[in-house]
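Office hours follow-up: a student asked to see two folded examples consecutively, so here they are.
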Amino acid sequence: MKRLLIITQKVDQNDDLLGFFVDWLREFAKHFEHISIITLGVGLYELPKNVTVYSCGKERDTWRPFRWVRFLWLLITLIPRSSAVFAHMSPAFALTAWPMAAIMGKKVVLWYLHRSVTLRLKLSEFLCHRIVTADVESLGITSKKVIAVGHGIDTEKFKTSRNWDHSGTFKIVSVGRISPIKNYETLLAAVQKLKLTNPDFHVRIIGRPVMRGDNGYLDKLHKLSKQLGISDVVQFAGFIPYDKIADEYKVADAVVGMTPHGGIDKAILEGMASGALALTSNDAMKKYFSDYAEKLLFRYGDSDELAAKIRFLIGLTPAERSEMSRFLVVSVSQHHALRNAVQKISQLFYLP
């Protein structure tokens, strides 16, 4: 009997950072007779009947040592009942589950995306059956055990019918947590330059501070927006539940990301899946842009080039926008579709 144990941080379809994983769980449920999930905390979710969620109680703010004891008890209880273990986004989960999984002869597979290579990641690479990631650029470690399966985008959620013949305000969206790594200063500086040529456009920044110090960064961005005189065309939308984020992409004409080279930006891929045009300074996206790469990539931190690329998109004819949009949708479907990613991961548990 195929029974999978999944360990994850949170099961909540409205969470702006981890809400996408509920879609993953629904897809995994198609490949296994039963799915057991150990999660630190829960929120709102709807899952198939063959999925059981066990929370450690973080949503109730339970005593941390109690959560740790419950986590270990759930591992002891559920690993013997499971065929394999899938640890999501945390080497600590994989390492904690591994001793009992090894004793019981169960494979542990870790999903991980991060530029930094920690001791925990190195140990996980040594002990785990496989490490799966979105793209070879998404992980700082090189190993025969590392398998790239795509970012797992639920393309059906983002699919929409676009009418590029519309005229009016060109709508730009940038989605992600409010953090210095996102480099929103470059976008704000580009917006100021765009205003000088008076195109009709609007920018919507979606996301909230998460880590310590990020609130100060958000304050800095608000002040910069006022100093640059662009508050009338830039909106800080704050938190949007993940279950509603597809609607934001569907009404946007373009999605923009300002991060450096590294892991593939899921927000850019989600925007592409909706048919939005895409601009990014992360040149790891080059292979997914193909012949459009020169038009859609800009130098990291270069607000002049970003402004020029946005101006270029605004100036495209409806036919040109439509052709580019169709290509980007197909690119995501071919390389990052959720169905393909989960199928590849599921097969790993039964390969030597």
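And the second, which I mentioned at the end of office hours:
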Amino acid sequence: SILRDKPELRDVFEGFRFYKNVLAYNSATLMATPGLYGGYDYVPSSMNKKSTIPLKDKHNEALLLMPRILTEQAGFDAIMTDSSWGNYKNPSDMTFIESYDKIKTDRLYIKYSDYTEKMLGLPVLTESLENAIIRNLLWMSLFRETPVVLREVIYYRGTYFNPNAVNDSDKFFDWYAGLYCLPVLTDFNALENSFIMITNETTHQEFDSKSLDIIDTNNLSYPNSMHYKENVISLETIGSWFELMKENQVYDNTRIIIVSDHGIGQGELAKDGYDIPYLKDFSKDFLHPLLLYKDFSATGEIQTDMTFMTTADVPTLVLDGIVENPVNPFTGNSVDSKAKSAGVYVTTDTGLWSPENSKSEYIFTVPDDSWYHVKDNIFIDSNWTQEVPQ
């Protein structure tokens, strides 16, 4: 749909493959990202089998898998930004990476907001922030006087029950600035091969970005979807980075993967392609992420590929042809995609979006009836079977 609305992106995304038949493991980042970062050793069912290791430690292992393999087994340099739930903190605490000398970390979130506002000639986005501070000072006082067991209820994901918090332009822009500044942050003088793992949540914010007038969002196929606009904006902004790569002759010798940890699960597109789009009242689209892949020296117009993929295939895509028989440095297991040959287990549970929501320090405590076995083609309902992993 985005390519139809913005046909100029077909040239920008030259050589890419769009994996449409792709599956995520949960609708929340906490359970969805470990497999994306770490492969099949770290999908929810696999993490639950390692029931003596704390979830936080397993999550950190997943974040480190690709950079460790590439720096230790292939001589790469590596940098990670804003990694999801690092040390089970949000924003991410990446101090657990400090002992790995060849793996650097950075934060793009918030860091370049002022610069981007000035470059785009936008008014400083302070009004919503000021209002939030005035309101939240009162709530913070109440929070401090409340027994610890009730504080999470009052805090409520940092919003203090503010219905406008998720529509705050500041948070959208603080993430968007990280994408906008990628060309400014990039040089072409590296002496070693580089692995760059960027986490960005621009598309996660429910904010009508049209008010910022960043790009032309008129005449879109889904004008009422804030998420759709944010996806258009994100892909156009990343496309500017690709154009810079092409100008500096590094686009062809760069492997690029764009992937989300889960889908949106709402709006007109949530039903697209499915014979039955819902599991009871759960939208399958929550488990339908974006996966775009460009290999070294790939050319031609972007292609759609219906191969069955999951987000846990990302490490295999990254390492293919670079590391022969890659091995997980934490488990000793091979890093490959063989585990999906007979299908995979996903969970539709929506309660574990934060570590504090889990009843266990070691496993994901999800109801048995939330587990589904999925195989071959996510759009065919008979390929979804309610089944608890053994």
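Two things to take away from it. Confidence is low (pLDDT under 50) at residues 163-167. DSSP finds twelve helices and 14 strands in the chain.
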